[in-house]
Write a structure and sequence with these properties.
Layout lengths: L11 E6 L6 H9 L9 H24 L4 E6 L3 H14 L2 E8 L2 H14 L8 H8 L13 E5 L7
Parallel strand pairs: 1-2, 1-3, 3-4
Helix pairs in contact: 2-3
Amino acid sequence: MSQSLSSPHTPTLYLLCGKIAAGKSTLAATLARLYGPEMHDVADYVRCAARLKEAMTPHLEALLRAGVSLVLDFPANTPQSRAWMKTLITASGAAHELHWLDVPDAVCLARLRARNQQGDHDFAATDAQFAQVTRYFVPPDAQEGFNVVAHRGDPGNCA
């Protein structure tokens, strides 16, 4: 795993990239003890995400400009979703880290099934929903210009 690039005194936007059940929400909770809005299925997320981003953008930029570090539990899973995040970085002048949880599908599916059995996660995705969403996953590319912190394989405590 790569080391974080930011100092504790630099306002930083922490971004998360990984498939369903790769460990994004767990890592976000570890980084900030926060959890994003409740979503019950893929349709809920698709319907609400654009409006939520639009409403949050000026607030996120203002917080970053004011020196507050943020952890976004929004998936940075496509170049399009990361482009919105890049606008936050550019507009605020904040440092950033894109945490990429590079976890194999088999591990994600096993975690998803275990998470669903426990019943304590807001979004109980099915295997079919995992496959539907994973079709669109695109790993970050160096040309996108992010400071990537890679978590490869099966980062044990990011379940």
